[in-house]
Specification:
The chain is an all-alpha fold. The chain contains 6 helices and no strands. InterPro entries: Rce1/LyrA-like_dom.
Length: 123
C-alpha cells in the first residue's frame, strides 16, 4: 500500500498530498452536482427510480474521457469501462442519497473510493 511505500521512502508524501486533496474536492463536487442537483431534478420529472438510473448513467458517461485516455484513446472501450464501473458506483451513491435524504453519506463514500485509488499499488 501507499502508506508502506511512503514509510519505506519509496514515495514522498508531497507526491500524494495534492492528489488526496484533489480527489476529496472532486468527490464533494461530483456528489453536490450529480446527487444534489441532477438526481433530485430528474426525480421530479421522472420519479425516484428513473432519476437514479439516469443520473447514474450520466455519471458513468461523464468519466469516459479519462477512461478512454487510460485505454490508449479507445472511446468505445472507455465507454464500456465507465458503464461497467462508474455507473454502478453512481447507482450506489445515488441509492445512499435517496435512503438517507442527505449528501453526507454518498460524499463520504465517494471520497473514500477516490482516496482508495490513491493508495492502490501502482497508483
Amino acid at each position: 500500500m501507499a502508506e508502506v511505500r511512503i514509510a519505506l521512502g519509496g514515495i514522498s508524501l508531497s507526491y500524494h498530498l495534492p492528489r488526496v486533496l484533489v480527489f476529496a474536492l472532486n468527490g464533494f463536487t461530483e456528489e453536490f452536482l450529480f446527487r444534489g442537483a441532477l438526481q433530485t431534478r430528474l426525480a421530479l420529472l421522472t420519479g425516484d427510480g428513473w432519476g437514479l438510473v439516469l443520473t447514474s448513467l450520466i455519471f458513468g458517461v461523464m468519466h469516459v474521457g479519462a477512461a478512454a485516455a487510460l485505454l490508449g484513446g479507445d472511446f468505445l472501450a472507455g465507454m464500456a469501462l465507465c458503464v461497467a464501473s462508474h455507473a454502478p458506483a453512481g447507482l450506489l451513491f445515488g441509492l445512499t442519497a435517496l435512503r438517507t435524504r442527505s449528501l453526507i453519506s454518498p460524499t463520504v463514500a465517494h471520497i473514500a473510493l477516490n482516496l482508495a485509488s490513491v493508495a492502490w499499488p501502482g497508483a
